[in-house]
Design a protein that fits this description.
This protein has 15 helices and twelve strands. It has 394 residues and is an alpha/beta fold. The C terminus is likely disordered.
Length: 394
């Protein structure tokens, strides 16, 4: 009995010491981003063929940010397009491209007036080559293996990218990627879809909100696909487990005042629900013909890292912002129960449409936190997000 009590006391003290460590900015930063955990130890991210890609199907290159950081990036060619130019691509130098604009892959992206581009913003931990990310790059172009290119980045502090991650820093990284796509690659926003997962969904929403709410020259992309998102960091801490195992504030979530106390120490807020609502509202109120949106939120019921209820909250904030009179969470849940369509593979999908755009929530029965990124439900969502160009595609 005494040994059991001692063990309980020791574990409780240890947990609160762990929480105390998390109030230290550097430790908290690592707990949120996990950028030092590369998950690609011993592998060279400048050799994408290690992950099953064909020779020079992926072109690694470097991207500079406005505040002086250098990001590592991959340009992934769709397989059908690669097949058409295989011999020419194999003849090019392999590895990191010193000048991406001189590569054939880049020229095919820039010079084709029908090319489509996915800007890919990954989740916490790892690099461009970690886990289910390489298979998910192939899923991006599954429904049009000739036209859909993908460009992904490692944020500052991830992989071989310079710097240290932060909320403002990751937004700056996303802005650098968007600027490269529009100004260097010459792809208009109407042919760009933002794809993201987990932490990347917060970056994507922040990017879309930032560009759409600019006073001068607001920018609206063709659409965005958000996989396994969270409402905001404060709500995430009550359920999130680091690497799916170590709880952050889950044990004290039943004590609201104590939870609020620890949430005061959170530096990176990532208020996705509020920014997504602000983005939708800005589109609805704008007189700009380009102010349109196509948003798909995807989550797996068996996701043990971020519970799928976060997608419910995010979807409600978006739908509420799209309605001139608003709608309560409970009212929307009743509407969803009555109108949702069952997915043949397990799960369901609901959709809300306005004159300005479309909002979709797709909940899969299976897929965990990462595997779902490579599933057909994602490929279909990416294709639907290219709604402005889909009617012209073969």
């Amino acid at each position: 009995m005494k040994s059991g009590i001692y063990a309980l006391v020791a574990s409780t003290v240890g947990y609160f010491l762990f929480l105390g460590v998390l109030t230290i900015p550097a430790c908290q930063n690592q707990a949120i981003h996990l950028n030092k955990i590369t998950l690609t130890w011993g592998q060279d991210v400048n050799v994408p063929e290690q992950w099953g890609f064909l020779q020079n199907q992926v072109t690694p290159f470097l991207l500079d940010t406005s505040d002086g950081e250098t990001l590592h990036a991959w340009h992934i060619l769709p397989l059908g397009l690669y097949k058409k130019h295989e011999e020419e691509l194999i003849d090019e130098p392999a590895g990191l491209a010193v000048d991406i604009t001189s590569r054939l892959s880049f020229k095919m992206l820039r010079e084709d007036p029908e090319s489509l581009l996915v800007l890919y913003l990954h989740g916490a931990a790892g690099t461009l080559g970690s886990g289910w990310r390489p298979p998910s790059y192939r899923a991006m172009s599954a429904l049009n293996p000739v036209k859909i290119h993908t460009v992904a980045i490692d944020y500052r502090g991830f992989g071989t990218s310079t710097g240290t991650p932060s909320e403002a820093g990751l937004l700056n990284d996303a802005l650098a990627l968007a600027k490269w796509a529009m100004e260097v690659a010459g792809i208009p926003p109407s042919r760009i879809v933002l794809f993201s997962q987990s932490l990347g969904t917060a970056v994507t929403i922040s990017l879309a909100h930032h560009l759409a709410t600019q006073v001068a020259n607001p920018i609206f992309f063709s659409g965005m696909v958000l996989v396994a998102p969270f409402a905001d960091v404060e709500q995430l801490t009550a359920t999130y487990r680091i690497a799916g195992t170590i709880p952050l504030l889950d044990p004290i979530a039943r004590f609201p005042r104590l939870l609020d106390f620890f949430n005061r120490f959170i530096i990176a807020k990532w208020p996705s629900k509020d920014k997504l609502a602000g983005f939708v509202r800005s589109c609805e109120m704008s007189t700009d013909d380009n102010a349109r949106y196509h948003i798909t939120i995807i989550h797996a019921e068996d996701d043990y890292d971020i519970p799928w209820e976060h997608s419910d909250k995010l979807y409600w904030h978006a739908v509420n912002a799209s309605s001139p009179h608003g709608i309560s969470y409970e009212e929307l849940e009743e509407e969803k129960a009555a109108s949702r369509s069952e997915l043949l593979g397990g799960g369901w999908v609901v959709e809300q449409n306005t004159q300005k755009g479309s909002l979709r929530e797709a909940i899969s029965k299976w897929g965990l936190h990462d595997r779902i990124m490579s599933y057909p439900i994602v490929s279909l969502a990416v294709w639907k997000a290219f709604q402005r160009e889909a009617s012209e595609a073969p």
